[in-house]
Design a protein that fits this description.
The complex is a heterodimer of chains A (307) and B (259). Chain A contains 11 helices and 4 strands. By secondary structure, chain A is mainly alpha-helical. Chain A has a single domain, classed as ABC transporter involved in vitamin B12 uptake, BtuC, CATH 1.10.3470. In chain A, strand 2 and strand 3 form a beta hairpin. The longest helix of chain B has 21 residues. Classes of the chains: A mainly alpha (307), B alpha/beta (259).
Chain lengths: 307, 259
């Protein structure tokens, strides 16, 4: 039971991060029906920018949370600008092209961004400077850290804010209208190009937050870190029903929990043949299962609401 | 001194081809302020293509349109909407998963000033504007007679009510010209009569209406002016009576020799 609860806490933390990244995939898909495979790389850039800033500030003796916040303050605009440029340069010229073209472009972009990051930050792992003093709380044998609480709390806050934005504001209405029928939305005076740019920028801001969280949580980052994270977040988005905001949130949390539980019990169940390092397999088993049994995802129906 | 009222809209020599198919071969027409103009013609005459050019969905190959004394931006629907032209579609195109009220509220978008920051930080001005949008949307739903359904999902409305909602959404953009593409399609006689009343009321509010319709009897009763398209050309225009007796129109509809 203790293992279960412990892994649940770990899984929800990881799942919060997946959910933030999955939202970026799902929002773009909702509006453009495009899988932005470069999104994981935006997370990576966010993490590495933040690591650089935090590294530079770590000797000044500022309080840990302040340093972390400063890292995010730099990383978020960088990622937002990157997301904006990605859409303008790589996807907008292909808006009317066959669907395969932007998909291939996305993969090419993902590889390019990785290599550019390798040139800037090198190929080695960059460790997270020890600026944070993390408190641990023992709740009946289950250990939860202040960092985990911060990650979950911040992610929940951001997700609630995003739902408010999309459901309750005129901007959100314009986003939903664009997702459902861009041609008609334009006739209502919605500048759909602007809405699409805005969607990429918001998704990238969430990616920056997720990037900083991952760097802080695993205390390490490098130029390939966006690849696996991106794939898993994509899996989470598909699991929840791609194009569906709440689906991405649910899918992210669920995937995080499944993975953590797999890591916790894998050794016991297989008599030590497979260890927790096989946990990644579970994310993709989940993806295959969803695609086979419920291709629209958990919250996706045939007449699903996109975005 | 003659006091000539300038037409609301003048289209000059609009051309549009799709590959080898010439959909519009130089259409010129003008619309009067607060008038109802019927656009008729056989299938494939270019009526809907003309609507699409007018509202900026298509960019014309040649020609331009003046609206309220200014040239309309070609191929930029959101700017055309801002100038004051709104439309409905032959095949209803609502935001089917949104509520009835939200559909009309989207229509207000063009008259909304709150930007991205206002939406995110919910300033007092944004909140006031949002309330005004909501109030106006309810007003318009009452105007077309479906306010009781404001919280239903748009896709669940009856066919006739969906047509009304589409008109309410178009009116939400505060248009000077409302372009209706076959608004009476699929309606029975009494629904048609009600729609006719609604259209007359919209004209009384000072808006002009351009109407594509196949029911010639209905359109002759309703319209102040009628323009006839055939093979992408404007073959007749005038009062319903003039057009009805024009030999070219009879020929287009019934074939050579019928006149």
């Amino acid at each position: 039971m203790e293992t279960f609860l412990q892994q649940l806490v770990n899984g929800l933390t990881l799942g919060s991060i997946y959910a933030l990244v999955a939202l970026g995939y799902t929002m773009v898909y909702g509006i453009l029906e495009l899988i932005n495979f470069a999104h994981g790389e935006v997370v990576m850039v966010g993490a590495l920018v933040a690591l650089s800033v935090i590294g530079a500030l770590s000797h000044l003796g500022l309080p840990g949370p302040v340093v972390l916040l400063l890292g995010l303050t730099v990383a978020a605009p960088v990622c937002m600008a990157l997301g904006f440029v990605i859409e303008r340069v790589a996807y907008r010229p292909l808006r009317r092209a066959p669907k395969l073209a932007p998909l291939i472009t996305a993969i090419g972009l993902s590889i390019s961004l990785q290599q550019i990051a390798a040139l800037i930050w090198g190929r080695n792992y960059i460790s997270f400077p020890a600026v944070l003093s993390i408190d641990s709380y023992n709740l009946g044998g289950v250990i939860i850290t202040s960092l985990q609480l911060t990650i979950m709390g911040l992610a929940a806050l951001i997700m609630a804010g995003l739902l408010m934005l999309v459901q309750k504001t005129s901007l959100g209405r314009a986003m939903r209208a664009t997702a459902q029928n861009p041609a008609v939305a334009q006739l209502m005076g919605v500048n759909t190009d602007q809405i699409i740019s805005f969607t990429f920028v918001i998704g990238s801001a969430l990616a920056a937050v997720a990037g900083v969280m991952v760097a802080a949580y695993y205390s390490v980052g490098n130029y390939t870190m966006g690849f696996m994270l991106g794939l898993k977040a994509f899996t989470a988005a598909v699991l929840g029903g791609i194009g569906h905001l709440k689906g991405a949130m649910l899918g992210g949390l669920l995937l995080g929990v499944v993975e953590a539980l797999a890591a916790g019990y894998m050794g016991d169940f297989t008599g030590g043949v497979f260890g927790s390092n096989y946990k990644d397999v579970f994310a993709f088993l989940v993806l295959i299962a969803v695609l086979v049994f419920h291709p629209n995802g958990l919250l996706g129906s045939r007449a699903r609401e996109k975005v | 001194m003659s006091s000539v009222v300038k037409p609301l809209l003048q289209a000059f020599d609009i051309h549009k081809s799709f590959g080898g198919l010439k959909a519009l071969g130089g259409v010129s027409l003008s619309l009067e302020q607060a008038s109802i103009t019927g656009l008729i013609g056989p299938n494939g005459a270019g009526k809907t293509t003309f609507f699409n050019v007018l509202t900026g969905i298509y960019k014309p190959d040649a020609g331009h349109t003046e609206f309220r004394g200014q040239t309309l931006p070609a191929g930029l629907p959101h700017l055309v909407a801002a100038r004051g032209i709104a439309r409905t579609f032959q095949n209803i195109r609502l935001f089917a998963n949104m509520t009835v009220l939200e559909n009309v509220m989207v229509g207000r978008h063009v008259r909304t000033s709150a930007g991205v920051l206002g939406a995110i930080f919910k300033t007092a001005a944004t909140r006031r504007e949002e309330m005004a949008i909501r109030a106006r949307a309810h007003e318009l739903l009452k105007y077309v007679g479906i306010d009781a359904r404001s919280h239903h999902v748009a896709g669940t409305l009856s066919y006739g009510d969906q047509r009304r909602l589409e008109i309410a959404r178009a009116l939400a953009t505060d248009p000077f010209l409302l372009a209706l593409d076959e608004p009476a399609a699929g309606m029975n006689a009494s629904e048609r009569a009600q729609l006719g009343e609604l259209i007359l009321r919209i004209r009384e509010d000072g808006r002009a209406i351009l109407l594509i319709e196949h029911d010639v009897k209905w359109i002759m009763r309703l319209c102040d002016f009628v323009t006839v398209l055939d093979y992408g050309l404007c073959i007749a225009e005038g009062s319903p009576l003039e057009v009805q007796n024009d030999p070219r129109v009879i020929e287009a509809y019934l074939g050579v020799g019928a006149a």
